[in-house]
Design goal:
The chain is α/β, with parallel strands linked by helices. The protein has twelve helices and six strands. A six-stranded parallel β-sheet has the order 3-2-1-4-5-6, sandwiched between helices.
């Protein structure tokens, strides 16, 4: 017994690294399908999009960089899939300067490929990046064409059918901001407050708690809080739209649902090692005290 305690106290840390890596890799490659409960904030976001009419225009803003992409990418992808499934018109823009344009381009290309019946410029469009965040938001209240004269390919947006009947952010039915930092908050305090456009936010998990005050005050139409919120949204989409549900069951290498499986597994491994370490430590102290 004493020898076992000594071995546990002196375990090579590389074994810990190995089990941590294993607990992350296996659930991503072989999803565990662990249950995920749906929070009211995510349900609100899903129900709001479900209540929109086909042909309504929504805006998806990429307000995050590569460092938070594992959390924010599934939110943006899920929202765009949901909207295109409901025949909504999706306008994509980028206000975050650090790498967000590349992320937006990748998501738009990937989701556009999944919906071959949707036409770029008619059903969805990518306006690209514009510097100025709050100044751009204020300009959107007057005219989208003034804020973004062309799309990411340089084509004048006045020539794009998607903007027929839509002049400013006031005609947009909802803004979804996948956000890190303060840009997501500015959509609430500037765009919603001044122009009345509803806002749904997808913040990183560390930022999510502060947005519950906006939900309670009615300033947010919903929220996807971190990777868990994105996983909840994926599950809601999968239940409502069986075709997308099959897609979420394993055709991609990484989704929020798989990420939650991996996160749960790694938490379990960490807890196990903490328990082993504490049991070995206190048992060793007790043995020393008796001796």
């Amino acid at each position: 017994m004493a020898g076992l305690l000594d071995k546990l106290l002196k375990i090579d840390r590389r074994w810990i690294f190995f089990f941590v890596a294993l607990s992350v890799t296996v659930p991503i490659l072989v999803p565990l399908g662990l249950p995920i409960s749906t929070t009211s904030a995510t349900q609100m976001a899903f129900d709001f999009v479900e209540a929109l009419e086909p042909g309504d225009v929504v805006l998806l803003s990429f307000d995050y960089g590569p460092s938070s992409a594992p959390e924010n990418d599934p939110m943006a992808e899920g929202f765009m899939r949901h909207c295109l499934s409901r025949d909504l018109r999706v306008v994509v823009c980028v206000l975050y300067p650090l790498g967000a344009l590349g992320l937006a381009n990748n998501v738009v290309a990937r989701i556009g490929h999944e919906f071959p019946n949707k036409v770029y410029g008619t059903d969805y469009v990518n306006l690209g990046y514009k510097d100025g965040d709050r100044a751009v938001m204020r300009r959107l209240g007057d005219s989208i064409a003034d804020a973004f004269p062309t799309d990411v390919n340089g084509r004048p947006i006045a020539d794009l059918p998607i903007f027929h009947g839509v002049r400013s952010i006031r005609q947009v039915k909802v803004v979804f901001t996948a956000a890190t930092g303060l840009i997501g908050e500015w959509w609430i305090t500037l765009v919603h407050a001044q122009f009345g456009t509803p806002v749904i936010i997808g913040p990183t998990a560390v930022s999510a708690p502060k947005y519950y005050a906006y939900i309670s005050s009615g300033q947010l139409a919903g929220m996807l809080g971190g990777m868990k919120g994105a996983a909840e949204y994926e599950q809601l989409i999968g239940k409502k739209y069986p075709v997308l549900g099959n897609y979420y069951k394993g055709t991609r290498l990484f989704t929020a649902v798989k990420g939650m499986d991996a996160q749960t597994a790694i938490h379990f491994v960490i807890i196990v090692f903490i328990l082993i370490g504490n049991v070995a430590f206190f048992a060793s102290r007790l043995r020393q005290g008796r001796s």
